[in-house]
Amino acid sequence: MNYQLILDDIHSHVVSIKDKGTIASYIPELAHVDINNFGLHLRTKDGNEYGVGDYTTPFSIQSISKVLALALAASKKGNHILERLDVEPSGHPFNQLALLEIENGIPRNPFINSGAIVIADIIVSAFDNPKESFLKYVRDLTGDNTINYNESIATSEKASGFRNYAAANLLKSFGNLNNPVEDVLDYYFTQCSLEMTCAQITKSFHLFANKGKCLFEKTYLKEQQVKRINAVMLTCGFYDEAGEFAFEVGLPGKSGVGGGIVALLPNNYVITVWSPGLNEKGNSKLGMLALEQFTTKTQLSIF
């Protein structure tokens, strides 16, 4: 299959679309990103790589980092993390608080903000320097020491993340946060500010398509853990649009409000797209379209 030709065709079609969505300006620093950016990168399990557009331009991966954080927490705590959160789709926006109150401080899944804050709390407890440990983990997965945090974005999120403070305090009130709120959120905002290119994200997610082994065949997760994380990505990776993504694209994946989406077909490939304009659900508008076109043209999805 000529993957490069397929990516080029998708790129030429998608970039011509006038309605590119809306930048996530509620994080002030993200509002400065050019909405015309578009990158697409594919890496097959056997190591062949294909890219088009701005796939080597770094951007803030935001909630895509939640999958990598979950993997790191799972590698340390195993199934014990499920004592503190669930794995059900929320059917609500990622920063919604009502369900957390109703369900006694147990987040629906690890990819809504409250669930990701619980995972952040686990990481803060597990490491003396959680920021350095998470960054090292991502660099080790990719073999790329140029990956780093964007401190200005982290500062911007910390200054404007009032709903995350509310979620963390609510978790604390139910006894589901072991560390001080400020410490957990300081780590969490930094984690979300991680900057990567499409190509780097694709490489970091190789372990989810390769039974827990990274690019260099080092085992980071058990096969059962990979199976479970992929399942949660399929059912919960796109906020209250997870069903639509499964219906249109048919892959496990995760989006972020920085405009990135990563998706994968186990034992086959990982693909990452970046287009910073979001739809009304908070997912990349053109990114969703590009991935739908990719699985339609290749007929390579889990269904």
Protein topology:
Elements: H1 3-14, E1 39-44, E2 49-53, E3 59-60, H2 65-77, H3 98-102, H4 113-126, H5 130-142, E4 148-149, H6 151-160, H7 162-173, H8 181-192, E5 194-196, H9 198-204, H10 206-209, H11 223-236, H12 242-248, E6 253-255, E7 260-265, E8 269-274, H13 285-298
Antiparallel strand pairs: 1-2, 1-8, 3-5, 4-5, 6-7, 7-8
Helix pairs in contact: 1-13, 2-4, 2-11, 4-7, 4-8, 5-9, 6-8, 7-8
Structural commentary:
The chain has 303 residues and is α+β, with helices and mostly antiparallel strands. It has 13 helices and 8 strands. It has helices spanning 3-14, 65-77, 98-102, 113-126, 130-142, 151-160, 162-173, 181-192, 198-204, 206-209, 223-236, 242-248, 285-298; strands spanning 39-44, 49-53, 59-60, 148-149, 194-196, 253-255, 260-265, 269-274. The strands form 2 sheets. Strands 2-1-8-7-6 form a 5-stranded antiparallel beta sheet, sandwiched between helices. Strands 3-5-4 form a 3-stranded antiparallel beta sheet. β6 and β7 form a beta hairpin.
Task: Find the count of extended strands (DSSP E, 2+ residues).
Answer: 8
Radius of gyration: 18 Å
Helical/strand content category: alpha+beta
The chain-level mean pLDDT equals: 95
Largest sheet: 5 strands, antiparallel
**SSE run:** HEEEHHHHEHHHEHHHHEEEH
Which regions have little confidence, pLDDT < 50, spanning 5+ residues? Answer: none
Write out the strand line-up for the largest beta sheet, numbering strands in chain order.
Answer: 2-1-8-7-6
Shape estimate? globular
Strand content: 5-15%
Helix percentage: 40-55%
Task: Measure the end-to-end span.
Answer: 19 Å
Number of helical elements = 13
